[in-house]
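Kindly inspect what follows.
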Amino acid sequence: MLGLFLLYFIGKAFYELAHDYEKSRWGFAILGIISYYAGTFIGGVILALIGILAHSDFPQNIPNIGLSFLSLPFGILACWIFYKILVSLWSRKDIIKNSDSLDGNLMG
């Protein structure tokens, strides 16, 4: 149940970001959720590799819920990074677009 709330807030943040920059709202809401799942998957792989390299049975002895909680920060970090990348790209394009329109107004 808590996972659904987390997905709701992730989707809502990306939905509102896409709305602010006039992009596909639902598409980027879904991409935000996909970025969360990609981050948790990568986090799980990293934890498994750490266990293998340390020659321990660390990932095998943890219940699935425990592994989910350990990979949660990786998913949130992936969402945050993806969000910041989108803001950076879209604001840069917005600045370029605004400066072009200002140049056109000054020349014409």
Q: What stands out?
A: The radius of gyration is 20 Å.
